[in-house]
Amino acid sequence: MTTDPLVSAVHARTPLSGVDVIDAHAHLGPYSLFFTPDPSADAMVRVMDRCGVRRTILSATMAIELDARRGNEQTAEATERHPGRLCGYVVVNPHQDPAAELSRWATHPGMVGLKLHPSLHHYPVTGPRYADAWAYAEETGRPVLVHTWTGSDVDDPEQVAEVARRYPKAKVLLGHSGARPDGFARAIELAATHPNLYLEICGSHFTGRWLTRMVAALGAHRVIYGSDFPFIDLRYSIGRVVFAELDLADRATVLGGAIRTLLEEKS
To answer: Does this model's pTM top 0.90?
Structure first.
């Protein structure tokens, strides 16, 4: 019988306890590219309760796909419906008045960071239309979650690293850590070179073995847990951390401590 409290909770089918879990990558609302059974805020919180997740930071798919203004409104509404459980990323679409969206949500207590999705926006992360977002990130200290895909011409991790170099005070999360197994090693190398880059680990191709390699290379404080719910089941994503070959302190840091520090929260 294991004495590991996280593994024991999974075996007992009970929520994780004794560890502060914060999901740093989730979405709200239906998505045009594939079906998700229930992409609502209420469903997110129900799954969080089953797993022992205290808090989730999400962005509306409406915002990353079609209408940043309306989508950010949906995100804000979700944070108000579930205060303390759901927080939001302000999505900045480079084609839809970024400065206005940044100004509009600057003081909203539920909006704690920024989300950029260059692939869906069809615009390179290094482009000047994202400049307002990066300046805002440096000024406020709020983290920026950037969708990345190895080999992309708009958001390959190499391009995000270039932005991190230009804006050294920005806290930049490499969403999916490049997404593809052929890019994970390079994402680790880039994060090792740029201290303001953090590896966020959600994705269909990610494994517990890659997590242990990331922690060994960078330290657990540079690795961020995310689920990509409802695109990927939160329970599957959290299991990869729970059963990773890491000590309890490192798994606790990945599951919540690292992003909590970036948000400048106390436990």
So the answer is: yes
